Amino acid sequence: MIYQIFDRFQHLSAIESISLLLIIIISLAVDYFSGILGAKYSGASRRSTYFGFLGMIAGLIFFPPFGGFVGLFVGILIGEFLDYKKHTQALKAATGGLIGSLAGIIINAVLALIFIGLFIVFALQ
Questions:
Q1: Are 78 and 59 in contact (CB under 8 A)?
Q2: CA of 74: how far to CAs of 10, 13, 44, in Å?
Q3: Is residue 14 predicted with pLDDT exceeding 70?
Q4: 73, 74, 83, 87: which is closest to 47 by C-alpha?
Q5: What confidence tens digit (pLDDT) does each residue in 59-112 have?
Q6: Cβ atoms 36, 53 nearer than 8 A
Q7: Which residue, 84, 6, 76, is CA-closest to 46?
Q8: What would you report as the CA-atom Rg of the chain, rounded to the nearest whole angstrom?
Q9: Cβ contacts of 34 within 8 Å, gap of 6 or more
Q10: Which pLDDT tens digit goes with each residue over 20-30?
Q11: What is the three-class DSSP state of 66?
Q12: How far apart are CA 34 and CA 97, in angstroms?
């Protein structure tokens, strides 16, 4: 958007801008939900995924930039312990959340490269 203002809306069309905006929205969704999905596929309960999401938000607020990972892990772990599951199941679910978050980082790196590539192609037309 800033580029378009300085460029006086001459190089990026509305469709191109919307394409780039969609990549941003997908990236944000990946950020927030990859850890939760990883936990869910590792056997975490619904309650634990809520705890993980809250822990991730709290971790990002109080311990940026890596607090989200720790908060997600601890939130899922606490949620699983409150559901009276075995310690091994709780660790498995929390680790799944952490692995999901790391997979999300890789997906976001790919999305960033796609975004940059498309931006360059669109801007040079």
A1: no
A2: 49, 45, 13
A3: yes
A4: 83
A5: 989 998 888 889 999 999 999 988 867 888 889 999 999 999 999 999 999 999
A6: yes
A7: 76
A8: 19
A9: 100, 101, 103, 104, 107
A10: 889 999 999 99
A11: coil
A12: 8
